[in-house]
Each structure stands twice: as structure tokens, then as C-alpha cells.
Amino acid sequence: MNRALSIRSRKKDDHAKEASKHTFSISTLRGMQQAELSKKLYKLIKTENHAIGAYETAGRERLSIASQLSDWGESTNDDAVSDISDKIGVILSEIGEQEDLFAQNLEDYRAILKQIRNIESSVQPSRDQKAKISDEIQKLKYKEPSSPKIVTLEQELVRAEAQNLVAEAQLTNITRQKIKEAYDLHFAATIERAEKQIILARYGRRLLNLLDDTPVVPGDVRQPFEHVNEARKVLSDAEHELQTWEPHLEPVHSNAGGLAPNLMPTGATSETASAATEPVATPTPTEKPAAEAQGTHLESATA
Amino acid sequence: MNRALSIRSRKKDDHAKEASKHTFSISTLRGMQQAELSKKLYKLIKTENHAIGAYETAGRERLSIASQLSDWGESTNDDAVSDISDKIGVILSEIGEQEDLFAQNLEDYRAILKQIRNIESSVQPSRDQKAKISDEIQKLKYKEPSSPKIVTLEQELVRAEAQNLVAEAQLTNITRQKIKEAYDLHFAATIERAEKQIILARYGRRLLNLLDDTPVVPGDVRQPFEHVNEARKVLSDAEHELQTWEPHLEPVHSNAGGLAPNLMPTGATSETASAATEPVATPTPTEKPAAEAQGTHLESATA
Description:
The structure is a homodimer.
Chain A: H1 7-20, H2 39-75, H3 79-143, H4 149-208, H5 228-243, H6 271-275, H7 296-302
Protein name (chains A, B): Sphingolipid long chain base-responsive protein LSP1
Organism (chains A, B): Exophiala spinifera
Pfam families (chains A, B): Pil1 (PF13805)
């Protein structure tokens, strides 16, 4: 069996293929300004922005298609097709709104990833500083083994190591907490969009059943559309079910509640922690915008 | 209450707004080549193509994000983050594949809309011909009321009317049948994507619960990751549930089964129908490609 055990290994295969094509390995220089440590997440956050843009486009196009369908139905001069296509259009608009709401929720998840990226960037100088002092000591020991500067540098190194220990603890604390938070939100948003679109699509199918497609012979006149009220009822039922929708999720548990503002466990005042003179700045969480756009199309359609 | 009763009326408001901005009312001349009758659907089919493109992009970006997440996790040198991020990546890849499968299904729905558009285009000449002969008769009656050509034209008009009656019956038969078929497929595809992504997202949330985010103090070493087997089990459970997924849809009923190849009810041989010399060509249905791409990421990840 030559199958990959994770997407990681598969991904490497892809890279190997790319390399053989002699394409540029760098597509933009912007990522290069990022600290080594935060480069990968920086790129992921950028790609997520493209994905979000695609969902926004999909939502916008769906709204446009909904209007066009309704318009087309009217132009057929067939009462039944006109009424049903208009109401299918309402359902499609609402499905489009859900794509947009999903995109907004993904923005919130993306903001959480940025908090990890920010702490990664801020931990980098602490690692660099430690490595730099170590380096200097090694060089000096080789060139001037008796230099008094070595003692000073070794004292500096102890301080740098202490500071770095704090920074690394803050990094792992934030990383684990925020990666859980980010994908908790991502998956919850996926489920929300899915459950709401299922509601809408099911009512959409009921609308279709109100359209009689029995073929007619030339000269036959179609009967007037008899299901106007039923069709309106389907829409208002859909609206009601959408508005009373509530998430039912298996919770993602977190033990990060004990994380103090200094990104250490609450009450932790180890000597190492207090020895650090410059704790890494706490990344500020992004405010979550109230993304409540659901049911507006149905609401106006059934008013 | 000044709320719209349908998206149709809302759409008109939008148009009014656009007009006041003095933008071009024509954005492309291509639609103009279409018969008047099929213009609206022609445009809708084009817009749907953009929507499909957006879903393809979303799927592609999601796959890319999945790889990047796995890669990032590996670079953290944290066993737990590495394992969980790789497996979350597998779930995300599969979610991306579902976007792509959805786009493929939308292509099939779009092909059905094209069948309506095609019959609309083919009915147009029949309407034009009838109108043209009527016109000629009116002009002649005014200019040369005693012309013998009037009788000939009136005979031609009877034939044109008969042909048009057939064409219009074919149009309504195909329109009603295919619009139901198209949105039956569209809504079924929406539900399929939604149900499968719900399965994936729920297992994704279980994976998150295997990552302990209890904060550590500086100098503490994280315990080795103990849930490797559990995480693998979550993925294989997800794979199994995805592979055994089956649609459970309220059926959309059709009475179009009695539609003969001549687009008339089976057995209908009315005089009008047989009087028509040139029946409108039957649009050929598009083959549905077997779109079975589900579960490949999970399969290789749990192999």
C-alpha cells in the first residue's frame, strides 16, 4: 500500500512535483518580512482570506441568480412557473445569505489565528537574542579565552534564557488555547451554514412539488395556479424554522480558563517568570461582530 | 409595512437604484445574440457559472489551507499540536472536496437549465414567423385589399399558427418538467454537501477535544501526546460515516413521465400536432458525470 498516512506527507509529494517543474519557489516577497516563526501561519491566514472571498462571491452570485430566476419566471407568462420561481428565488437568496454569514464567521476564526501568529512574531526576537549571545560567547572563547567580557556575556545569557523560557511558555499556552478556539469556531460555522441550508433546501423541494408538470397537447390551456396560498405557507414555515434554529453542538472543552493576563497559569509566580524583565505583549483579541443576517429574505417575502 | 412581497419586487428597486447611478445598462453584447425568449435564462446560466467557479475556488483554497495547517503544526515541534493539526487538516481537505463535488453537481443542474434555454431559442422563430405573416396580411389589406396574395398568406398563417401551437406546448412541457428537475438536483446537492460537511465538522470538533490546552509555567515540559490512537480512531469513524452516507430526501414528484420524444403527452396525436410540419428539435439531455470523489482524504489518512 503506497498510500499517505496524513495530508502532511501527501503535501510533500506535491512539493516535489512542483520543484521538478522549475517554477519560482517564492511567489511574493511580502511573507519574507515576517519572522521565521510566524511565516507558515502568516501564509495560511492569507490563503484563508482567499477562501473567504470565494464564499462571499458565491453568496453574491446566488443572490443575483435568485433575482434572475424570479424575473425569468415572470417573463414566461405562466402563473404557476412565475409564482414558484419567485418563491424558489426567495429560498435561493436566503441560501446565498447563509454563504455570506459563513464568510463573516470565517473572518472571526481568521482573527483568532492572527493571535497565534502575533505571539509567534513576538517570541522570535527572544529566541534570536538568546542565540546571538551564545554565539558571541563561543566566538570570544575561541579568540580571547581570557577576556573578562565572557563573564558579562554569560550573565546576559542567563537573563536571556530566563526571558525566553517565559516567552516559550506563553507561546505554547496561547497556541494550544487559540488553535482549539479557532477550529471550534470554524467547525461550528460549517455546521451552522449546513443546518440552515438543509432547512431551506427542504422547503425549496416542497415548493417544487406544487408545480404540476403534466404535459399538455397543443392548444390546451394550463389551469390557473391553485397553490398560491400553499406556496406562501411553505415560505413562512421555512422562515419560522430558520428563525427558531439553534446550534446543538458537542462542546469543545478548554482548560485555558486558568490563563492569566501574563499568559501564565493563574497564580503562577515562579522565579523564572518574575525574573523576566520584558514579558511578551498579550495579543488583543478581536471583537466578534454580531453577524445576524438570517431570515431577512424570507421575512420580507412572507410579510 | 413597506416590505417587499417577493424578491421580484425587491429586485426592481435595485434596478431603479442602478439606473440613478448612470452606469451602462449593457455590460456585454454577447447576450444580445440570443433570441429574445431565451435571454433571461441565458444570463442566469452565465451567472451560475460564476457561482460554480467560486465554489471550485473555495474548495481549492480549503485543500491548500489543510496542507498549510498540517505543515504549521509540524513546525511547532509540539507532538500534540502536530498530530491534531495534521488530522484537522485531513478533515478540512475532505470538506474542501465536498465543495468541489457540490460544484460538479451544480454543473449538472446548469446543464438542465440549458435544455430549457435551448427550447426557448428554438421556439422563437416559430413566434416570429407567425407575427411576420400576420403583419404582411395587415399591410396588404390596407394597401391592396383585393390582392389575391391575401388568401395565400391567410393559408400560410393557419399553418404557422398550427406549428406555433405545437412549439408553445413543447415549450411549456419542457419548461415545467426541467425547472423541477433542475432545482430538485440543486437542492439535493445543497443537502448532500451540508449533511456530509456536518459529519466532518462534528468529528473535527472531537479531534479538538483531544488537545489539552491547560497552561504551563515557564520551564515546564508538555507531557507526550497520549491520544494518537484515539485521534486515528476519530478519523476512521469519520471516514466510515461519510462512506455510508445516503441521501434521505422528500421526493420531488413528476408527472412528466408521459412526455413522448416529440415533447407531447404520450399517445397524443391531435390534428394540430400532426398538422405541424417542422416540430421543434428535442434538446438532448446532458450526460451526468459520475461525481464520486468522497472520502479519499480520509481513506488515505486512515489506511
